[in-house]
What we know:
single chain; mainly alpha; two-stranded antiparallel sheet; 6 helices; globular
Amino acid sequence: MSVEPQILGRAVKAVQYRQHRALDSRLAAVGSTLAQWDALRAIGRTPGSSARELAAATFQSEQAFGTLAGRLVAQGLVDRRPGRGRRFEHHLTPDGERMLEAGHEVADSVLAECFEGLTEAEREALLDLLRKIEER
Length: 136
């Protein structure tokens, strides 16, 4: 039996959509959205990164990330500092670090639920297959 690429693509999208809805809903309880938490996570992983680098890391356009970063600055979660040339570097504030940690707890819980039906071997196989597709 051959699996049509459109069917497979839709199945991947359906799982992603379910995860995103669950994450967004549960992150609201800690005062964040999925987009905000993902931006905090990217900044936490690479402090001092530019908006261009962070936009790429969060799968957003530079304009969309710039708007989001402006909101995070206004909320006191991110600090923008002048860098080389016209570059601004992004850093988490102490409040941003607390929000990031709260988001990690939510994400760990939501994602554990999403993958609880898979054995450890199946999770490893799924990760290997997704990485194989991503590397192409």
